[in-house]
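TICKET: design request
STATUS: open
ATTACHED STRUCTURE:
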């Protein structure tokens, strides 16, 4: 799962150089050969211009969100007749990914889009590219130095947690002594800490609500099921659950069904198609999910093309693209799920 910078970037929920405003999900509950949904909105400013070769390097697509990242990048590049995409074979081995990026540098691509397997470990190769005169669009997991990229674009993990907490707070604001629990992701990831911090900060605005328990899972179905079972066994009554990831949420829902519990509402995280479908049906505990959009990869391609052609961001007065763009974590519930349904992927 992606990591987020500690400093908050420019909040830019719209499109960068016509980048998609559609948001999509972050997990996969279907076989890996299922093609994830990608933005079908036309790329803005698509009048052919100066040819641009974009090098794209990301980690191994061993998770639905990362697979969707790759598909969004490829799909966006195909919309431009003036863009050639040089895409590497994804790798979670930092040395291998560094080697792939160095190959792209040696090929003298015009712009690089990099989603590093490890932002800290790949900072030096980002600096190398920038010093070679190749602007870098740093996608989601951030490098340690702002000198290693021209523009960062990514999701808002703190915002995910905050929006989830606010949604739950509004739903429970008339209930005295309300109890909520949290099913987090991997605790060794900074993104998990930020999601929890956002959630806790939002709940401070609702003194009638107490978070009575938290369990960290592993972003997998199996861990979601086992950790949720533990939460339910320890808490005989709860009013709400926030689950960080819809993939582990599949397991959590299994544990909830097995326990025969339905006295609470559940908010997920990411926006998997299966979550959208359950929210639309409105027959179970899952009432909403907070998005983390892999369409950011399409936006990264737009930004890279703009950098290669010396353009700014459509709709903004400045001649240059921003240094940092943070996408908005929208809450999807039954009132707007139809709008987001096409953006879900399997």
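STATUS: resolved
RESOLUTION: sequence designed for all positions
ATTACHED SEQUENCE:
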């Amino acid at each position: 799962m992606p990591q987020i910078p500690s400093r908050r970037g420019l909040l830019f929920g719209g499109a960068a150089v016509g980048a998609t405003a559609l948001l999509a999900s972050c997990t996969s509950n279907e076989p890996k050969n299922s093609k994830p949904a990608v933005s079908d909105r036309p790329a803005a400013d698509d009048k052919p211009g100066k040819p641009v070769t974009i090098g794209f390097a990301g980690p191994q697509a061993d998770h639905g969100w990362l697979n969707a990242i790759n598909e969004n990048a490829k799909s966006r590049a195909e919309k431009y007749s003036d863009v050639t995409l040089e895409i590497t074979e994804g790798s979670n081995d930092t040395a291998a990914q560094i080697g792939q990026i160095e190959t792209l540098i040696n090929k003298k691509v015009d712009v690089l889009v990099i989603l590093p397997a490890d932002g800290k470990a790949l900072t030096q190769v980002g600096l190398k590219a920038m010093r070679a005169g190749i602007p870098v669009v740093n996608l989601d997991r951030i490098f340690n130095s702002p000198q290693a990229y021209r523009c960062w674009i990514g999701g808002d993990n703190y915002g995910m947690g905050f929006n989830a907490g606010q949604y739950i707070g509004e739903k429970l604001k008339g209930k005295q002594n309300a109890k909520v629990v949290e099913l987090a992701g991997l605790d060794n990831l900074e993104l998990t800490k930020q999601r929890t911090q956002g959630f806790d900060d939002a709940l401070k605005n609702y003194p009638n609500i107490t978070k009575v328990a938290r369990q960290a899972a592993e972003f997998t179905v199996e861990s979601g099921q086992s950790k949720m079972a533990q939460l339910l066994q320890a808490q005989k009554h709860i009013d709400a659950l926030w689950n960080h990831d819809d993939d582990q949420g599949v397991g959590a829902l299994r544990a909830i069904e097995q326990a025969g519990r339905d006295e609470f509402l559940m908010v997920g995280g990411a926006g998997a198609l299966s979550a959208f479908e359950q929210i639309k049906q409105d027959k179970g505990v899952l009432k909403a999910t907070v998005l983390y959009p892999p369409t950011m990869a399409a936006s990264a391609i737009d930004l890279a093309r703009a950098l290669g052609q010396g353009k700014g961001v459509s709709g903004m007065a400045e001649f240059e693209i921003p240094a940092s763009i943070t996408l908005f974590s929208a809450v999807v519930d039954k009132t707007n799920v139809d709008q987001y349904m096409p953006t879900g992927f399997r």
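CLOSING REMARK: The longest helix spans residues 157-172. Residues 49 and 82 are 6 Å apart (CA to CA).
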